[in-house]
Amino acid sequence: MFNRRFVLAAALAAIASVASAQEWKAKYPELVMALVPAENATGVLARVGPFAEYLTDELGVKVTLRVANDYTAVIEGQKTRQIHIGQYGPGSYARANTVSGGNVVPFATLRSSGGVIGYYSVIYVRADSPYKSIDDLKGRTLGLVDVESTSGSKAPTFFLADQGFPIEKHFKLAQPTGSHENAIFALANGTVDAAANWWNGEDDSNLVRMLTKGMLKKPDGTPMTKADFRVIWKSPLLPGSPFALLADMPEDLKSAIIQAFLAAPKKNKAAFDALTDGKVENFARVSKEDYVESVKMNLWLDEQRKRKPTN
Questions:
Q1: Distance in angstroms (rounded) separating the CA atoms of residues 215 and 207
Q2: Is the pLDDT assigned to residue 6 strictly greater than 70?
Q3: Summary mean pLDDT of the chain
Q4: CA atoms of 120 and 143, how far apart (whole Å)
Q5: What is the mean pLDDT of residues 85-89?
Q6: What number is the average pLDDT over the span 210-235?
Q7: Residue 122, φ and ψ in degrees, nearest 5
Q8: 68 phi and psi, to 5 degrees?
Q9: 32-46, 231-245, 262-276: range with lowest mean pLDDT
Q10: Would you say residue 9 has pLDDT above 50?
Q11: 100: which residues sit within 8 A by CB, 6+ positions away?
């Protein structure tokens, strides 16, 4: 009798699960995923496209990859529920969570080799420049990324001010370049004296990604190498860049998305390696509590902007 009841209960649970999945699939026949722009559109499609296809297979509904022009497009896209899954830096996630009234919530980030969760903001200079420290950049130009980029704008602004180098006073000009790639291009071309960017390790950074693709050239056309650049500043460890979903989606849908992400390294290693340049172990679960300091950083930066005089 016990076995019959157990089997019946399991069968009923399975039927309910299938019915629930069919219900959210009918409501969400397509899911949109977008990432804040760290590289050009072609690079995003090549790197993330296979992962979107993997998610389509796993979830049973089409997952469309949207290439955003800037950080605000992803933030506003999730606020208006036009984007269901987004990847952010810690600071831009905190902004998305705030403007959405808490409806954008983080669920996973990447765990790097060695089990490290998190990354750094760094400031590069050309190796052939005389600059060896932040002190040396007094009165020089700094290339930032988007104002919502953590590693490319928020972290250097926040931590340099704390270290006695407020950007608006220390540098002659601190100019947004739009993307991480653009900041490196500006440095390589001599448009700026230094550039902020993201950095996971010596062989895992946006600079290394660009060098591997042959995107950076010397004036004579020969490829640039890591030896042509020097890191002169590194931030404290930042929280890992989170993938976030909409809190008001059905629970079964959210659970399916999370499980698909966590299973990716084993179920489709090729797609996972393409997404992460093959330099990451797996996904780690995160929650909004992991980004409390990022929220505080945003509040501080917002307060500084309010204090700036307007012309």
A1: 10
A2: no
A3: 91
A4: 17
A5: 95
A6: 96
A7: -130, 160
A8: -85, 150
A9: 32-46
A10: no
A11: 78, 79
Using CA atoms, how far apart are residues 258 and 108, in angstroms rounded to an integer? 8
Distances, alpha carbon 294 to alpha carbons 15, 60, 147, in Å = 42, 34, 14
Instruction: Write out the chain in H/E/C secondary structure.
Output: CHHHHHHHHHHHHHHHHHHHHHHHHHHCCEEEEEECCCCCHHHHHHHHHHHHHHHHHHHCCEEEEEECCCHHHHHHHHHCCCCCEEECCHHHHHHHHHHCCCCEEEEEEEEECCCCECEEEEEEEECCCCCCCCHHHCCCEEEECCCCCHHHHHHHHHHHHHCCCCHHHHCCEEEECCCHHHHHHHHHCCCCCEEEEEEEECCEEHHHHHHHCCCCECCCCCECCHHHEEEEEECCCECCCCEEEECCCCHHHHHHHHHHHHHHHHHCHHHHHHHHCCCEEEEEECCHHHHHHHHHHHHHHHHHHHHCCCC
Tens digit of each residue's pLDDT (9 = 90 or more) over 71-84: 999 999 999 999 99
Specify whether the CB–CB gap between 227 and 127 falls below 8 A.
Answer: yes
- Own/partner pairs, 261-268, CB within 8 angstroms, 24+ separation: 261/107, 261/108, 262/108, 263/58, 264/51, 264/54, 267/54, 267/58, 268/50, 268/51, 268/54, 268/57
The CA–CA distances, whole Å, from 302 to 127, 128, 254, 279, 308 equal 34, 36, 32, 34, 10
- Could you tell me which of 223, 222, 221, 225 has the C-alpha nearest to residue 202? 225
Tokens read off for 170 = 């220390």
Two tokens at 224? 């640039």
Chain-centroid distance of CA 179 in Å reads 12
Torsion of CA 179, 185, 189, 194, to 10 degrees: 60
Q: Pairing between strand 120-126 and 229-234? A: antiparallel
This prediction has a pTM of: 0.86
Q: Which two tokens stand for residue 255?
A: 């659970």
